[in-house]
C-alpha cells in the first residue's frame, strides 16, 4: 500500500504542476522556485509533514519535498546554533542531494555530447 500511496501522491503533485504550467504563462524556472518556496512554507506551518508521512517518496522527492527539507534543516540549525543557523541549516540538511545532482550532472556531461539547436 505504501507504493500505491507514493504513486498517487507524487502523480497528483506532478499533475497539478503540469496544469499550472499549461494554464498560466509562468515560466518553468519560476514554477520550480514557487514549488520550493511553497514546500518550505507548508513545512513551516506543519502541513507538509503529514503529506510526506502518508505519501512517502511521492511527496518527498518533488520540489515541494526539497523546500520542506530545507525548512527542516534551517529550523534544526536555528534551534541549535541560533540566528546564524539560517545560513547553514538548509545546505547542511540537503548537502547529499545537492552533491548527487552535481556529480551525476557532471558525469552525464562527460558521457553525452551537447548539441546546439538550430
Write a structural description.
By secondary structure, the chain is mainly alpha-helical. It has one domain. 82% of the residues lie in helices and 0% in strands. Helix 2 crosses helix 5. The longest helix has 27 residues. The mean pLDDT is 90.
Secondary structure layout:
Layout: H1 2-23, H2 28-44, H3 48-55, H4 57-60, H5 63-81, H6 85-111
Summed up:
This protein is an all-alpha fold and 118 residues long. The chain has one domain.
Structure class: mainly alpha
Main sheet? none
Proportion in helices: over 70%
Extended strand count: 0
Average pLDDT metric:
90
What is the alpha-carbon Rg in Å? 17 Å
In sequence order, what are the helices and strands, one letter per element?
HHHHHH
What fraction of residues sit in β-strands? under 5%
* Number of contiguous helices: 6
CA-CA gap between termini: 47 Å
Q: Ranges with pLDDT <50 over ≥5 residues?
A: none
Anisotropy-based shape: globular
How many domains, in number, for the residues?
A: 1
Could you list some keywords that capture this structure?
118 residues, mainly alpha, 82% helix, globular
Amino acid at each position: 500500500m505504501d507504493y500505491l500511496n507514493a504513486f498517487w501522491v507524487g502523480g497528483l503533485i506532478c499533475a497539478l504542476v503540469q496544469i499550472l504550467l499549461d494554464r498560466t504563462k509562468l515560466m518553468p524556472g519560476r514554477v520550480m522556485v514557487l514549488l520550493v518556496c511553497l514546500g518550505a512554507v507548508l513545512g513551516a506551518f506543519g502541513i507538509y509533514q503529514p503529506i510526506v508521512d502518508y505519501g512517502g517518496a511521492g511527496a518527498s522527492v518533488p520540489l515541494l519535498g526539497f523546500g520542506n527539507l530545507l525548512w527542516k534543516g534551517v529550523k534544526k540549525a536555528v534551534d541549535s546554533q541560533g540566528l546564524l543557523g539560517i545560513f547553514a541549516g538548509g545546505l547542511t540538511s540537503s548537502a547529499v542531494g545537492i552533491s548527487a545532482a552535481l556529480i551525476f550532472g557532471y558525469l552525464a556531461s562527460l558521457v553525452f555530447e551537447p548539441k546546439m539547436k538550430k
